[in-house]
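Bench log, entry 3. Co-assembly request; chain sequences pasted below exactly as received.
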Amino acid sequence: MKSVGVEARTGEWAARWADFRYTLYLLRRNPLVLAGGLIALFFIGLSLSANYIVNPQLATPAGYPDFEGNYPFVRSYSWNEGHLINWGPGIRLYDGPEFFYLGTDGWGRDLLTMIILAIPVDIENAVIITVAAAAFGTLLGAFAGYVGGVVDEAVLRITDIFLAFPGLVLALVFAAMFGRSIPTLRLAILLVWWPPYVRLMRGQILSEKEKTYVEALRALGAGHLRILFRHIIPNAIYPILVQATLDFGGVVLTFSALMFLGFSPTPSLPELGNLAADGYQHIFEAPWLIVFPGLVMLLIALAFNLVGDGLRDVLDPRLRR
Amino acid sequence: MIFVLLGVSIIIFYLARGFPTGIDPVAPYIHPRMTSEQIAEVRRVHGFDQPIPLQYFYWLSDALRGDFGSTGVWANSRPAMNVFLTSFPFTVQLSVTAIILTVTIGIPLGIISAVKNNKLPDHISRIIALTGYSTPSYWFGFMLQLVFFYYFALWGLPSLPSSGASGMEGAVPRVTGMPVLDGLFAVNIQYTFDALAHLILPAFSLAFISLGFLARIVRASMLEVLRQDYIILARSKGLKERVVIYRHAMKNALIPAVTMTGMFFALLLGGAMITEFVFNWPGVGRLSLLAVFQGDSNFILVYTLVLAVIVVAANLAVDILYVFLDPRIKY
Amino acid sequence: MTKFSEPKERDVILEVKDLRLEFHTYRGNVKALNGVNLKLYKKEVLGLVGESGCGKSVTALTIIDLLPENAEILGGQILLTGENLLKKSKDEIRTIRAKRVATVFQDPMTFLNPVLTVETQLQETFTLDKEGLKQAVEFQSTKGKNITYLDFLSLEEQSSRKSDDKKVSRGEIKRIVKALCIDVLRLVKLADPERILSQYPFELSGGMRQRAMIAMALARRPAFFIADEITTALDVTVQAQILHLLRELKDKIGSTTLMITHDLAVAAEIADRIAVMYGGHVVEATETREIFRSPLHPYTILLMRAIPNVTRLVESLETIPGTVPDMIDPPPGCPFHPRCPYGMVKCVEKFPGTTHFDGGHEVACYLYGD
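Structure output for the full assembly:
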């Protein structure tokens, strides 16, 4: 009996591996997905190595504003005007060695460096939030779908409530009330992004539950938890993966939008939305402060959305050969 | 539905008033020169010194009679609902225009993408759609302002205004509260054009983001339809490809897309927050942002509830629409 | 070596010569058709039988050029009254689909558009033939009585007479089309045609839907019909009704049909001639009675033996040993040789040529010739 179990296991994983390679083949054939994937990998690589490429100390230069926002120097945003803090792209420091490819921000920090430092912040947080939202929503949905009955109804109603909140209101109010720290922001955004997973997983569970293999497993005496985790969830996981990849872009955007609106824990935190917020007041005189961080934001979201979109096409069971 | 609304209101209420770690609920109603007795008096008047469940009960009973409390700083205090209703038409005008743009651009984009699947037009339209979907809303608004307002003026081109809904406030009697329509009603061409000029940039900014989403949905649905057997039959009848797509495929494909548009409208109404902020558009989105920052719980509640109602109503409307579109569904 | 004799002199409407086709898939190239030869004579029903995967539906789809994108035609000819279809442009093929070849498909539930009424789907086939409709209007105005579908059919024979450029109003065309729709529905034995026109496919039963599809095919007044497994999705009683209808139509209007089926019984019911396919080749073709009475190809022989005989008592049912070949890597030479009890060395090297017998019996097997 034992050897049969082991053999079956190998067959199952071999099948999954072959499936995976077929998926990769399909993905490779689509140039858009390929491009998106490369860009995404680039950003991930950048976020992992950012601290080695640039000196993170540059984010807090000497004379850094203390928490009340008192700056030891005069902030101003104009081109080449005497003793200035802010320079536009490509202009050499008045009498110094540095060359600012993308200009500087209000504290004289090189924007390019700041963007490089900001990318890991955004990506890390987005990963944490997406994974947490997906995990939470999926488990809740699986639970509700499998158990059914009153529990199911209750979960559905609660999900409905959360879905009825317009836009970012919930996240905003939550963040406003609980202060400006990163964990709070993560929680706030999670509150907004978890409902779709519940619906998705619940639908999958409901249809899987009816399938005959579940009946067979019950007949063999498998416990509920085992059925749920070892069999049903792996079979139903594909749409969740797709949804998570697609959501990733949205989460990054939401995170930076909240930062932009002013929920950053410290004004100097290198983060794409935060950097853009700095320039909001002076958009017409120093447009680079918004243009470049936003552009990078767009590229990150675009890359992950391309991959997610392609993944969705490829994993659609009816489109596979 | 009632349950949903109650749930929404309870959550927001607790968040907005129940947690002293955040902003003190009394904050919007006081100003720095008040004495502590006056502040305590304000607190008492508004009932902020009561236990939360009791506060909720008072609020609920008032709300059911239409009184949502007052909003705004001490001197400017006005009934919250009125403030909301005054600004709401602006948001509606913006959202409706954005929806129109979204639909007229998004649907053809999705159809092209599906019909020429995996060929160049598909790739181009997918990039456009996904770029729209990936753009940060604040950034795009600024880009538009930068180019069309600032640089156009610099380069001597006619530029589009970047803020507000109208440059000629009060020139026309207020009928619907929406500048474009009011201008039409008063047959004031200049006013209408001015209002339209103010409308283009924000509406496009909003639309760009949602049209990507719609195009993806239309594409997926269209691809699904084009694989169906009845398309094979239609082609085997010798019908022109264009007829096959328009008469046979589209109707089937658009049904899911239409259901999405209904939900979209509701979401746009809410999500227009940031765009309104960027363009200084006098709509409820911007007011709600300000309310959140000031801790104005009454206005937040009004905003959230009204929009939640709209979301639920939109879903219902879409369900009803579904009956008409798909002859297989009967009630 | 080849005993040749001319088949009865009848017109050949469709001739397929050495058609080869491949599908390019992730797992490899599926060699679906490897030299298919077919002749379809006028006014007959040719039954194309074979197991799943032998290439019969693919042949039909190739004729009307509705293959999926990964299909590649490697060679051969498809001659419709002499013209090679493979050399035609997309537009010309489309015209052929509209006017010369009408196909009825297998599953009327999925092949009818669920959101369009029967009327819409039926009238669009009529309106493809503007010339014919104009002639019909003229006919109606000269003859004075309402036109029937049969009249409409007969108009084609006189189509050499060019209709004068009299403007015919849209209203008249619409009325004619409506009348023709009703009449053709009556012809396929659908009761209460007016009501059916306004209904949606899901409101009809399976048999009714299939009749509606047949009506859509009739509307095009084609040179011949292709019926792709049209009874497979129906239950047996409805199947019998549809076959009966087809026989009636054959008698009434002299239609030519290429009937594709995997069910020998269906073919026996309705086909004049039967062609047997295996592994992308046609292995035997002859008149129906002949093939049941004296099958020649080993595959056909084994097939006949496998049919349970109601009158004889047997211990166990006969089967053909082995399984259908993998078309990505088919066996060389004759694809049947792994399962053939008469296999010879020659069979592995090359697929045999066709041997023609008296009375039009053709077989492709080294047992009878090269």
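Residues 241-279 of chain B form the longest helix (39 residues). Chain B touches chain C through 22 residues (CB under 8 Å).
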